[in-house]
Amino acid sequence: KKKQTREKKMSDSDSQLHNVFVYGSFQEPDIVNTMLDRIPEIISVTLPGFKRFRLKGRLYPCIVPSEKGEVHGKVLMGLTDEELGNLDACEGTEYERVTVEVLSKDNSEKMIVQTYIWINKDDPNMYGEWDFEEWKQLHMPKFKKTLKEIIELHKNPQGKGIDDHTRIIHENLGNAPSS
Q1: With CB atoms 3.0 to 4.6 Å apart as the test, which of 42, 55, 71, 173 could cross-link to 47 if both were Cys?
Q2: Where in this chain does the record put each Gamma-glutamylcyclotransferase AIG2-like domain (predicted)?
């Protein structure tokens, strides 16, 4: 009986780990470390059936379903419930967390993961392809500073909620040039 109990406890803790597909700023290990206080295992993958867009006036991208599209990104492996909560807080109210299937770049294995898709699939502010290298050069320091503020607020809410996180994101990261 003791052995069964121990095995059950181990599987309970395993079931709380999450693999999350990221396709924007969270592909950068330094940003992930800022958010999680660690760098988990990160795997390069492709998400078929979606397209990534820039968002007019924003420093971050979005993805929406697109029959012939595919998005290259990373999977953050083995996130805890608390770490997933940090991601939820950072993504705010404009994204929905959904389950998707990605293909690993190494051996084309399929993997079921979670990701954040843009809720407004017909948003007129979506345009063009978001450029990760351009973002790193131009916007990473400001993004990192804002991320720290959101994580701190998430840890010590003081009556503030997810709408406040979204407001902070808009105030600090919503003045991107439209180029």
Answers
A1: 71
A2: 20-131
Entry pTM = 0.79
CATH code assigned at 142: 3.10.490.10
**Residue 158 placed within a domain:** yes
Q: Tokens for 112?
A: 């079921």
The answer to whether residue 178 sits within a structural domain is: no
For 132-175, what is each residue's pLDDT tens digit?
A: 999 999 999 988 988 888 878 877 766 555 556 556 666 665 55
Our count of domains for the chain comes to: 1
d(CA 35, CA 19): 15
To the query of whether residue 94 is one of the catalytic residues in this protein, the response is no
CA distances to 6, 80, 150, 170 from 83, in Å = 25, 5, 13, 22
